[in-house]
Amino acid sequence: MLWIRRHGWQFSYEAFQPPLYYLTALPAWLAGRAVGGPIGAVYAVRIFDAVLAALLAPMAMLIALRIWPARNAAGWSAAALTALLPGVALNLTSVTNDVLVSVLGADPGSANRFWRSKGRAERLVAESGLLATIIRTPILLGPGMAAARAVVHAASQRSVTLLGGGRHSVRPLDVDDLSRAIVRCCETPRAGVAIYELVGPEPTTYRDVIARTAALMGRDVAVRSVPIWLAKLGVAIAGWTRRGGMTATVIDVIASNESVQANADVELGVTLTPLSTTLAKLLPSETKVLHT
Question: Could you tell me the residue range of the domain that residue 264 belongs to?
Answer without folding.
Answer: 98-291
